[in-house]
Specification:
The complex is a heterodimer. Chain A is an alpha/beta fold. Chain A has five helices and five strands. Chain A has a five-stranded parallel β-sheet. The longest helix of chain B has 60 residues. Chain B is elongated.
């Protein structure tokens, strides 16, 4: 991917954000961060992003899930690929009893666990961006 | 109890039903009656009573049977026997089978009201105890959720930044410094894994873990557990010695969890040992079981403490203030062993040392190729096993 993709991280842990932001920036991406779901949603509406990196457990519970569901309902925002980065696999399973451990919150999402190896993170991000690109050219 | 207390009376004599109903009238109870055992049990299901009076001598199903079935259906329902003078001894038997009280016939209205009130009080206590138990379960689950978020999140942030530093500084760091950074990463990794294991031990559905059980070699579990404790033992100058009897049969289980269980016990033995002493880990067969015992000659556990050591959040008081822990290790170990159909028990003399014995059902060689045999449930001597 040649153009400088714009990514948004929504995570309430500034240290964690710092840890992945630098990795992504040194790989050439433009990265913004929001530290709560509300600011994150505003940021998504204000400016187009190519990919969202989303935490699940924020604020009073699984607010990341709430945000993901809100995005899905929005015709424009639902097109953004979402990479969920969470520390809590069990709780995801707990939140969706009876469903597979990887909940399909959005048609394009993917889930990785915290902490995430730098190269693995870059691979996932690149794969999601490419898939989104192909979807775009495919539907045209 | 907000809704009125529900009372069911089962008696073949209409006159008894009528008079009992009349006696309790105006006391605010909801009443139902049945004229024999079969109808009575049907009423138990439909009416969902708090309290049931059962006549001992009825044609058809006996009062004893009715009481036994009510008890089996819902042990929290309080049942009371109505009995004639000749059957006092069998009333005692009924109480052994689950009845709470009895009223000898004939009785005065005041006597009947008194027995009723006592029964209602008992029902209240039983329900309260059940609610407390449920609350405790919920607490345990929430505890796990808190641990996972509050402990794992900062560790993940630290680890993420270590990853970042390692990448950013890769051109500058010496080999020595890189090795140290790797060591940091692996220690954090160990912590994350440990939290994972603890969470598993606390929240996991036992039936689920059992699906992943496979024949597991005991000596390999012992070796891995000792490897994990060894660095700590070396720092404290404690020698861990093993004695594994003749070829041991494998056990049916999850190696990771069994290692975790043993690490807790061996780690404790080291923790409460005196510098320069020995910890002995031995394993042998006994009565179809593999027994693993861990002995130390350390500070020991006092007689008063011994019953509590397998409970949650219990930490030894035995005079070693420098040793800290969450007090969860042995509780987790017990849960892991129970999930494997095994047991753990302890013997100790304060000042002389402790011996922990774990048993696991041995897997016979011919069973190895067959799928999941039911692990035998054991009720052997468990110190402080009940929660």
């Amino acid at each position: 991917m040649n153009h400088r993709a714009k990514l948004l991280i929504i995570d309430d842990d500034p240290d964690f954000v710092e840890g992945i932001k630098s990795i992504l920036e040194s790989a050439g991406y433009g990265v913004d961060a929001a530290y709560n779901p509300k600011d994150g949603f505003e940021a998504l509406k204000a400016k187009p992003y190519d990919l969202l990196l989303l935490d699940i457990m924020m604020g009073r519970g699984a607010e990341g899930v709430m945000l993901a569901r809100k995005l899905r309902k929005d015709p424009r925002l639902s097109q953004i690929p979402v990479l969920i980065i969470t520390g809590i696999r069990e709780q995801i399973a707990f939140l969706f009893p009876g469903e597979p451990i990887h909940p399909h919150l959005l048609p394009v999402d993917e889930l990785v666990e915290k902490p995430v190896e730098p190269q693995f993170l870059l691979d996932r991000v690149e794969a999601l961006l490419q898939a989104a690109e192909q979807r775009k050219t495919g539907t045209r | 109890m907000d809704s009125p207390t529900k009372i069911l009376i089962i008696d073949d004599e209409e006159v008894v039903l009528d008079s009992c109903t009349l006696i309790l009238e105006g006391e605010g109870y909801a009443m139902a009656t049945a004229t024999d055992g079969v109808l009575g049990l049907k009423q138990v299901e439909e009416f969902q009573p708090d309290l049931v009076f059962v006549d001992f001598k009825m044609p058809g199903m006996s009062g004893m049977d009715v009481i036994q079935r009510i008890h089996a259906y819902d042990p929290s329902i309080v049942s009371i026997v109505i009995t004639g003078y000749a059957t006092l001894s069998s009333a005692v038997e009924a109480m052994q089978k689950g009845a709470y009280d009895f009223v000898p016939k004939p009785f005065t209205p005041e006597e009947f009201r008194l027995v009723t009130r006592r029964g209602v009080e008992k029902r209240k206590l039983v329900l309260e105890a059940a609610a407390l138990r449920r609350e405790r379960e919920v607490l345990r689950e929430n505890f796990a959720a808190i641990v996972s978020h509050e402990l794992k999140s900062p560790l993940a942030a630290i680890q993420q930044n270590l990853f970042l530093l390692a990448a950013e500084l890769s051109a500058i760091l010496t080999e020595d410094q890189k090795a140290r950074l790797d060591r940091l990463k692996s220690r954090i990794d160990d912590l994350l894994k440990m939290i994972q294991t603890w969470l598993r031990a606390f929240t996991v559905d036992i039936q689920k873990i059992k699906e992943g059980f496979r024949p597991t070699s005991v000596p390999s579990v012992i070796t891995k557990a000792i490897e994990s404790v060894q660095p700590y033992a070396r720092r404290k100058d404690i020698d861990i010695v093993t004695a594994i009897g003749a070829p041991l049969s494998p056990v049916f289980g999850d190696e990771g969890l069994l290692v975790e269980a043993l690490v807790n016990v061996v780690g404790n033995a080291v923790k409460y040992s005196f510098a320069g002493s020995q910890v002995l880990v031995s394993a042998r067969h006994q009565d179809g079981h593999v027994m693993i015992s861990v002995s130390d000659s350390g500070v020991g556990i006092s007689r008063e403490e011994l019953p509590y050591i397998f409970g949650d959040f219990y930490r030894g008081r035995a005079g070693r203030a420098d040793e800290v822990g969450a007090g969860l290790g042995l509780a987790i170990t017990r849960r892991i062993l129970e999930a494997h159909g095994g047991t753990i028990s302890a013997e100790s003399t304060a000042g002389k040392g402790s011996t922990f014995v774990m048993t696991l059902p041995a897997l016979r060689i011919d069973e190895e190729t067959r799928p999941a045999p039911e692990a035998s449930v054991q009720q052997t001597t468990q110190v402080g096993g009940a929660l």
